[in-house]
Each structure stands twice: as structure tokens, then as C-alpha cells.
Amino acid sequence: MNAGVARQGNRIFATGREARLAVRNGIHRGQTAGIAPGFVQANLAILPKALADDFFRFCQFNPKPCPLLAASEPGDPRLPTLGEDIDIRTDIPLYRVWKNGEPVAEVPDLKDVWRDDLVAFLIGCSFSFEEALVEDGIPLRHIDDGTNVPMYRTSIQTQPAGPFRGPLVVSMRPLKPADAIRAVQITSRFPSVHGAPVHIGKPEMIGIANIMKPDYGDPVVVKDDELPVFWACGVTPQSVIAAVKPEFSITHAPGHMLVTDLRNSRLAVL
Amino acid sequence: MNAGVARQGNRIFATGREARLAVRNGIHRGQTAGIAPGFVQANLAILPKALADDFFRFCQFNPKPCPLLAASEPGDPRLPTLGEDIDIRTDIPLYRVWKNGEPVAEVPDLKDVWRDDLVAFLIGCSFSFEEALVEDGIPLRHIDDGTNVPMYRTSIQTQPAGPFRGPLVVSMRPLKPADAIRAVQITSRFPSVHGAPVHIGKPEMIGIANIMKPDYGDPVVVKDDELPVFWACGVTPQSVIAAVKPEFSITHAPGHMLVTDLRNSRLAVL
Lengths: 270, 270
Prior knowledge:
Oligomer: homodimer
CATH architecture of the largest domain in chain A: 3-Layer(aba) Sandwich
Keywords (chains A, B): Lyase
Number of strands of chain A: 11
InterPro entries (chains A, B): D-Glu_cyclase, Putative_hydro-lyase, UPF0317
Protein name (chains A, B): Putative hydro-lyase ACFOOQ_04570
EC number (chains A, B): 4.2.1.-
Family (chains A, B): Belongs to the D-glutamate cyclase family.
């Protein structure tokens, strides 16, 4: 889930690797928003090999909600392109284990549940583009409110791959019109973390009946001088996986992401 | 004015230079929209040297409505950076001559009115970005309707320079939300022809009381599934000059632009 918020009192680490080692060693146990400013954080989905090929195709077909940063080899917990020493079994503060589409446990590591057929998918997260927006001076209400970004299932369907199919989930940030234009410019530079908005204004056009009733996260006020701006959201793959009800899968617990060695600024294509 | 529309029956020329020579030789006498696809067209403002320095600063202070492509030396009709053989006295199909802020004549050339103290300003025009939008498959209603783009005086003030001051004039194109996002991306690449929109949705926020009553050009319908998207407009400098009431000035007649040797695609900064 790409909607965590920085918790008060979180320690700040100078690099992604320092943050990750603090997670691995049990020093950091909470949400990860803001713990390593400038470093890319990633959504996690782990699936058995039997489903992994179709999910890989699903990500390729749906790059805006599912921008794949890296995928592991089956059974291999390493992700060398995201950080030399990453062990996906230990480097996230809290995991959610799913059986047949239902969450059955939240665990601080995967030592007891890891299998040789598991493939880890790491998917870009809105934290990266939110950092770029905030650095540009664009206020983001859910951050100012200290809440999770509001997210909505839409009437837009993803492109199916094998059993994976379902509605696009979007996150919404209310912006003044000039900031909305600037936000399109900024987030267009970051296709690997959802990229440009998919919709602006007019929530009813994408099947959102009540902007104050998000399907995930917390509501935020859209003021009269603001437009709701919608981005494809990393909750989409979680929602799609849950609908398939795999016999076994693992995700990060909401807000507890993998902190990588990649710098947000290096994700910019321009 | 950057709001001409392609006239039926206009001859199409292969290059800007061919179009310009046809104008110079009296072969082409009408509006210029679409007569040399791919080549940059420019708005014209000619002022006496006594006002030129302030106007030059005005353009620099207000690059979105007044993106200056070139300015001549006083009394020199050439514009070598826009085309090797340009003579600004003969290369526009129809000129409008102004005295004390009032139009007093429309003439096919400036041979009788040219003065040694005149400075020609050539300002980027929305034709260039409209061509990029249409090539991307984004429909533009005023083009489909065969009308002039609607333009509005706004409550946004330009940055004054000397006597030059006044409201920003914007052009409006109704777009579906996804096309509006794409249009921000495309036009951001073209800062020398007005660049990204200045506003989107919510016309009342920029002082537009009735979207169906433009101050210049023709109204177009904004459908329920569309947002009005507003760009800074090259009518702004004309409006600002008219308010100063210079003892003598010259502009192109609406829709009758200078066709240059520059290619629209070469204006893209990315």
C-alpha cells in the first residue's frame, strides 16, 4: 500500500541501506514513510511461481498502477538491482500473509513462511513522486492532515493477464489548478512510480460516487478552488491479487515498505 | 492574434519559405493557418524605438503570453533567425496599422508606412502547439467547428514594464480529462509558443464569468465530460499595446501571421 504517512517520532536515516539495516535488526519496526528521505520505497507482492508469470504480464500490461521496479528469481530473496544486500525475508518491518485471498497473519519477517517457489515483486510507490511535489512547494492535504491518502476503486478496468483482472484503484490529491498543471509536469518525469495522473476533476466520470467516501485510506476535503487529481495507485495489484485468492501470498503491511538504495531523483526520466 | 483557422481552399506550401514568397508576391492573400504544415508562424507587433525597450522588457517579464521568438534592429526589416530572406514589410498577407491605439488601416504591405525607428517583435503562436496536439490525436473543438479559438480577459495581471500593463488574455480549449493531462505534457515541451496551460477547470477563479461569452474569438461548447483548459494567449501583447495607445504601431491582421523557416518540432525543448 502506498499510502503510509510519516509517523511522529520516526528516526530518520541518512541512506536507504541504513534504514533497511535498522529494519532488519529490529531497531525500526514502524511504518516507513519519511524514514530515509530521497530514497525509493517499494510496494511488495510475493506470489508462488505458478502465478508469477501471469502477474509479471499483468504488471507489464498495467504499468501505471503496477510499475515494476524489480522481481526476484523464484526462491531467491535477493533483489540486487534495488540494493546489493537486500533480503526480502527480513528487510520490511511488517508483512501480511494471505491464504486463499484472506489475510491470516502479520509477521515481522518471513523466515518461517519462505518457500523455494516464491517470487517477490517490488512495485513503485507514490512516496517518490510525493517527495518531488512537496519539494516543489505543492502542498498535499493528506500529508498536512497526517492521514492516509484517499483511494478509490474506479470504473476503469485493468488489462487482464491470466487470472489477474479488476478495477483500477486510484489515489486522490486535491490541488489548486495551477498546482495540478505543475503536478502533471513533475509526475510525468516519474513513470516508474505511477507517472502522470490518470484523471483530473469530475470523479463521477471514473465511477467515484462520493469523493468523501474513499474505498481505502482517509477522506480529505476538496476545497472550492481545488480540483481532485487522480493517480493510478499501488493498491491496484493488491486488490487484484486478493480477488484471485491465491492459495498463498505475501504483501507488506500497509505503510511498511521496502526502503531501497535507489534515489528518488534517479527515477526521473528527464 | 493567434486564433486564425484554416480556410477552405488555401493552397498548402511545402516549406515556410515557399508560403512566405507566395505572400510576398501576392499569390497568397488570406489567413495563414495550415498553409505550411510543420512550420512556425508568429504574431507581429511593431513599435517605435521609444517604446521598444519597455516592450522588450514586458515580453521578458511575461514569457507565457509573450514568448518572444525574435526582434528586429530598429529600422531593419530583416529577421535572420526566423528566415534568411524575411522582409517584415512584405511577408505578411495583411497588416493592421494603428494610430493612438485605434486601427486606422489594413494594408497588404508596409512599403508606405515603414520608418527607420520601427522595431518588429515576433511572438510565438498557439498554432505550433495546436499542431502537436492534433498530431497526438487530441481533438480541438474550434478547429473541428471551423471557428476562432475563444479568448478571455482574465483577472490575472501581467507583470508591468514601463507603460505596458494589463490583464492576461487566455485562449480556451475544452478537453476530456485524460486529454487535458496529455495536453499539459505536450505543451510543456513548447515554452516558446505559450507552453503549458495556465489554468484548468473553474473559469470563475480567473475572472471568467461566462465561458460562452469570450472577449475575442468564437464561443465553443464545453461538454459535461470535458474541462476547460486555458493557455496564455498572444492576444495579450496586442491588448496591452492598444491600452498604451502608441502614436504609431503595426500588427498583423487577425489570422494573418508571419510564416517562418523554423520547424514546430524544433521548438520542443525535450
